[in-house]
Amino acid sequence: MNTIVSEKLIRPRSGWQMLTLCLLGILCAAALEILATSQVFNGANGVRGVVIGMGFLVAATSFVGLFGCMAVPPNTARVLVLFGEYRGTVNESGFYWVNPFLSKRKISLRIRNFETGSTNVAEKKNEAGVVIQQKSRTHGRPSKVNDRDGNPIEISAVVVWKVVNTAEAIFEVDDYEDFVQVQSEAALRNLATRHPYDSEDGTVSLRSSTQEIGDQLKLDIQDRLEKAGVDVLEARISHLAYAPEIAAAMLQRQQAHAVVAARAKIVEGAVGMVQQALEHLSRDKIVELDDERRAAMVSNLLVVLCSDRHAQPVVNAGSLYT
Fold it and tell me: Which residues pair with 14 in a beta bridge?
């Protein structure tokens, strides 16, 4: 049964001392070889062979020791593994020396971001080993998914993340960068199916509740990446639209809703204005109106105030009852 590997931070010895010793060892080995080929040991072949052997041994040891030197830049870590066994992580910048037989895998601790739907383009080299195409990333393509009401929509998000546990990022998942992208895409699709594109009853929707949707998306992605040693710093919707096949119909529906809402607001305001006018006329005793005249006045005022065109005045030369 596989167990979760816990991150173990270590601080190796300084690499400058060991680098100096290795370089001195190489110089000493060269001096021994020169000494062995000189006339000092003329006739003493046994001693000459020992000196040559010592020179090769010192040179080989010093040369292998150079492979233990490693530099750790800022916001970068080195995961150390010895013959398949995890030995620790170095995340402090500096120049260090470790066991030359340790494999030292480099992993970035910088903050990274990507847009869902984008893909990585690998670096390409020619036969001579010259890079002809740099590593890059394509632009994100919105994901097509149905919202809670079954409407097809296009949606994409920007995710900001960083590695916080190097052991889990290296040993718990196969490729942590690809894992982050795939799980973020899955979390975004799942979130889109749980909420409507737009709502009229005040419920959380993808279009109007941007802050709530972003916070919920961040939590969903973080839950999926918990075992990968990744911390999600931010997640926000970057693109949201109806699918092209229903965009025109949805636009007409939105326009109809807007017209109805505007008409309701106009009627509400017109009723208030008519009420104020009748109260003002009655309070100041400007004119006495019976029920029939009051109803006619209310009707005329509502027509004037609620009409979407300019009212055409009509002069009544007779009485109301003729």
Answer: 96
Render pLDDT for 81-130 as a digit per residue (tens, 0 to 9): 998 888 989 988 999 999 899 999 999 999 999 888 776 666 676 676 66
What's the mean pLDDT when you consider all of the chain?
Answer: 81
Quick one: pLDDT at residue 120?
64
CA 87 to CA 67: how far, in whole Å?
17
DSSP state of 138: P
How many C-beta atoms surround the C-beta of residue 259 within 10 A? 11
The beta-strand segments (E) located in 73-205 are: 76-82, 85-90, 94-97, 103-108, 112-115, 120-121, 124-125, 131-133, 136-137, 143-146, 152-163
pLDDT of residue 41: 56
Q: Are residues 258 and 217 in the same domain?
A: no
CA distance 107 to 122: 18
**Same domain (yes/no): 169, 251:** no
Q: How many domains are contained in the chain?
A: 3
Q: Which residues form the domain of 122?
A: 113-242
CATH number for the domain harbouring residue 124: 3.30.479.30
In this structure, the answer to whether residues 291 and 229 fall within a common structural domain is: no
Domain membership flag for residue 294: yes
Q: Do residues 277 and 289 make contact, with C-beta atoms less than 8 angstroms apart?
A: no
Do 207 and 302 lie in a common domain? Answer: no
Q: Is 214 exposed, middle or buried (0-12, 13-18, 19+ CB in 10 A)?
A: middle
Residue 322 domain-assigned?
no
Token reading at 234: 């931010």
CA–CA dist 322, 320 (Å, integer): 6
Q: Nearest 5°: phi and psi at 318? A: -110, -160
> How many Å apart are CA 103 and CA 118, to the nearest integer?
32
Q: Which one, of 270, 312, 308, 278, lies nearest residue 296 by Cα? A: 278
Q: Do 15 and 23 touch, CB atoms closer than 8 A?
A: no
